[in-house]
Amino acid sequence: MAGRRSACALLVALGCLLALVAGVDRNNFKTCEQSSFCRRLRSLEPQTSEFEVLPASLQQFKQHITLSVLHQRTKHEYVLKLACVKGTAGGTFHLQVDEKQPLSVRYRVQDALVSAEPQYSATRVESSTGSAITVVCPEVEGVKATVQVTPFKVDFYQHDRLVVTANGKGMMRFEHLRRKPEPKQELPEDGQKPEGDDGADQQQQDDPPADDPGAWEENFKSHHDSKPKGPEGLALDFTFPQAKVVFGVPEHADSFALRHTATKGTDPYRLYNLDVFEYELNNGMALYGSVPVVYGHGETNTAGVFWLNAAETWVDVFSANRDTDVVSSLVNLVSWNSQTEPPAVNFISESGIVDVFVLMGPSPTDAFRQYTDLTGKAPLPQLYAIAYHQCRWNYNDEKDVETVSAKFDEHDIPMDTMWLDIEYTDGKRYFTWDHHKFPHPVEMIRNLTELGRHLTVIIDPHIKRDSGYFFHNECTDRGLYVKNKDGGDYEGWCWPGAASYVDFFSPDARRHYADQYLLENFREQSERVGIWNDMNEPSVFNGPEVTMLKDNVHHGGLEHRDVHNLYGHMQLIATFDGLLRRGHGRLRPFILTRAHFAGSQRYAAVWTGDNMADWGHLQASIKMCLSLAVAGISFCGADVGGFFGNPDAELFARWYQAGAFQPFFRSHAHIDTKRREPWLFPEETKLVIRDAIRKRYRLLPFWYTLFYEHERSGLPIMRPLLAHYPADVNAYAIDNQYLLGDQLLVAPVLEQKQQRSRDVYFPARGDGGGEGGGDWWYDWDTHVRHSRAGVEAIAVDNYKVPVFQRGGTILPTKERIRRASTLMHDDPYTLTVALDREGRAKGTLYIDDETSYEYRRGQYLYLEFEFRDGVLSSRKIDATANYKTASWLERVVIVGLGKVPTAATLYTDATGAATGRLELERAGDVVTVRKPAVSMLDAWSIKLDF
To answer: Any idea which residues carry the catalytic annotation?
Structure first.
């Protein structure tokens, strides 16, 4: 189900039926002008900052320094903390600013970072004068930060190159907490103020003015926000002096390279988790998730800023190319002209503190690692989770599930997981089944399992208010619901009708919610059932902007405004805990979530929500997943075919081809759409879809290795071209093709009636790169080599997905396609060796039991393959790890050899003695070594004779 029709959904809950509304209703969602703190704090032009540092306040500690910062007009003081973060290659600084003596403690984000508190290394003051204080990180060479006294700003350097400036545009704002002023009283007849009454002076000094509309309470449509703490917004700008392009701050249905927004009449990008159905493309409207990290990239440096704030946030972009639309066209590549000023961003948040990590790079991959060092890497999923998933709202009953599963077998199409939406429950009561439609759920699950398949079911955070529902009664009795501002259980409307919402910020609520997943509680399931957490922004059909009131209260007195973007993330923590304990710590949980925040990648995969069956949304799926990937969330995909609407055969087939090369691969559709299982389309379309899905299954060993390496390194799985071609300025804005690891270049067909060719950009290396300035790329289907950088028109037909293997890499595949990935475990491998200009190649392969956590106890194989001087060899990367695999090497395909070998010899023992001669096949420039039949567990080499 995804978020479905928000406005219509309330009426559905009330028993009304409405036709589908075409497109999102923008009136349901605020603009910056309607969001009072954004309106107050937004700046569009550089200015002289009103903040200054008090140098005499400097205090030096072993792992951080502190300074007092004064607002020159209000005379309010703040405390700045600056520290070097431990263990991040290339260097990361942590910068915090908070009130020195706030009226109440301001919220600091919890649960997003891997560690409860950042881990610091030595932080030392290198110099201190009346005008500047310079801080260095002794453990990271060449990294320093200089705090300018007045006007306040912080410059961050790497090897004397300025890479980030905080408050360089002077846009810092920090609304200190204060008491609401009393209404103005008329002066006595003598014209003198009563003794001690300085309210007028205080009002004049306050920033913002106390009578600013929306500062102390705010209305949006029929909803009222009481704002018990009054105005408490903050803003800070960051400039990237070495950059030409900025990217990040997902989730938005927009280009990968961020557009210039700092113009009157244009809204900033908004980070505020919302249920937005049929969302529009090419704008910065808020969507389901918020990850407040942004990167600035240029030829010599990539740096990032992670703004750790979970409140509503707007991000203005000052683009280096504000007069040029940033597009992914390969015909009109963006012209990065010399600019008068570098790109910058301005973060504007409603509450909290300034809590910033500056990621120093210097390369894109360095910056990506620095971010995931802080927020975590996605754990290796079970193999089945990265295979193909079949879903719709809804499969009707047990017979429907059984029939769809059987039809995949009948049409010889692999499929690993069937999904059930909300209609499987008893009246939208989660942790229950509708026993009229699903009278034997355990048996249904067992039947799927015996076929090698899995089931995933949906469980949302809203709980039906029904005195006959056990979980509602327990949450009520134990006080586990979110409260309204008056202390009562908050009540909103969602799919069940009247509903309350689990307060996942309460440790007791998280634990009790997690307990519901245990087999002794939710008995009609199995420990292998996956979970889908949807509607967790949270979605409230009758709430402001289809979500929860900001003055609701969570455990510990937290206002919802402070933690809104964390709500879904906290549900994931509870769900993951429940599934982990359900499997007794053995099985890796699978969770899909719609709402997400920084760090959500540690618990769940993400999909891009309620998209539409049109070509624009197909194109957006790549842009959105690329933005999420560089923000740590690699396990991303979009509803294949589009959630809303009925795709025609061409769009449906092309979407399958694109989805087969994205990390999460699921077809899903709205309840009002036509059934769209592949065999319901014309035969030629079904065959194209089957071919796309089978490509996915062939490449599962490669995908599985990528996911494992992501857990080790934190690098994205889907990567923009600039990740590995940072000096190629023509690649910066390209977001209709991408890299998988550094091995495959993927350029799906994304345009209607594009039957003959698809323009593909082969990036330039930036080091001269030999002939043509680029790497060698081999067509995955034909092995035709492309050796020049630039745009090439690649011939396509209905079946063609332009995918290219980079020269210098070795890819593992399995060529025996079965009904489900779980049945391929012991099948043999094929290695495709694509040689570079030097005639060399390297690659990796990861093998384990594909389900458990035993790999974290050394039960795995991590292999490196190398081809050099005519010899292909295999060795263990982690020598102490071991896994007794039954798989073996079936075939080696070598492309790019300058000459044809006459023979091949296999060596397997430690003495180097030959084991036997191998059969060779030659087809043009491709040489195939057939049936080496060596165990993947063994060390071996294959020598080619010429």
So the answer is: 534, 610
